[in-house]
Amino acid sequence: MNLNSEALKQEQKVSHQEEIEIDQTPVNNKKPQKKLRSPSSKAFKKALSYTTLIVVSIIMVGPFLWLLATSLKSGSENIFAYPPQFIPESPTLSNFGAVLEYFPFFTYLFNSTVVAVLTVGANLLFCSLAAYPLARMNFRGKNIVFILIISTMMIPFQLLMIPIYILALNLGLQNTYLGLVLPHATTAFGIFLMRQAFLTIPFELDESARMDGANAFQIWWKILMPLVRPSMVTLAIFTFMMAWGDFLWPLIILNDQSMYTLPLGVQSLQGNFSSNWRYIAAGSIISVLPIIIVFALLQRYFIAGAMKGAVKG
To answer: Over the stretch 32-41, which tens digit does the pLDDT of each residue have?
Structure first.
């Protein structure tokens, strides 16, 4: 019996020592390392990306640069020469001077400025007012209303011009600034953009403002509007570009040349100067400059606002 008990104790000691050794064995928990890319593959992908960006930039900016080169060419140069000559032989600004002398540029500039400013202001006001209840309030049929508003984006404006024109004539809005502004006073895109911006703001701000005694209008004006400023700038840029470059609706609603906007004025250059493409190019450059200036001044807000609307929807 003693021999058996001693043997059992010896076996238990041996097994216990084996368990300790097994526990003390190091475990390799390291994750397999990713294979590092070779410097040559990184350089190739980087070069491919830059090449693609340069090609796309040339395709996008090329027509504008060609328009600028045409406006700077003198009368002795053949703008239809083949192969085409991109850089003018003797650059001149006389084309711009001739356009400003024989073309009521400042009248058309004033008309376009008034229409663009009123259109931008109306869109910022009405789109934000329409987006506020869709984003911050709960009422029956809210989603249906939003879907109906978004659905109007699929209807081209050309299909609505005839009834809008008849309505404008009945209201006496022909040859007026209101006749140019009201059809574009609010857009479904603007309502959608402002609604997405309002959704990114925490609802706790509304609750705390109501506890302080603020009503819905005060919450919209004093709390939400300052917080969605980048989205407002984005909407302002899109609306300004649309209103500044609109050609078809002013052509329909206007028959008084003193009310022409810049796109209509530039189109009239073709008849005034017997299709002098140097003058037409110079007038086109002048009409595009305000859009470039506005975008250059507001581009940092434009990028922030464009990204903000994609955070939550």
So the answer is: 555 556 677 8
**Contact assessment for residue 148 and residue 130, using Cβ atoms and an 8 Å cutoff:** no
Terminal-residue alpha carbon distance, the chain: 81
DSSP string computed for 220-244:
IIIIIHHHTHHHHHHHHHHHHHHHH
- Report helix, strand or coil for 191: helix
Query: What's the CA gap between 16 and 33, in Å, rounded?
Result: 36
Tell me the per-residue pLDDT of 42-89, one tens digit each, with 9 for 90 and over: 888 888 999 999 999 888 888 888 888 888 888 778 777 777 777 888
Structure letter (DSSP) for residue 30 = P
For 265, the token pair is: 């004025």
Alpha-carbon distance of 31 to 186, in angstroms, equals: 56
Query: Model pTM?
Result: 0.75
H or E element that contains 132: helix 105-136
Q: Longest C-alpha distance within the chain, in Å? A: 128
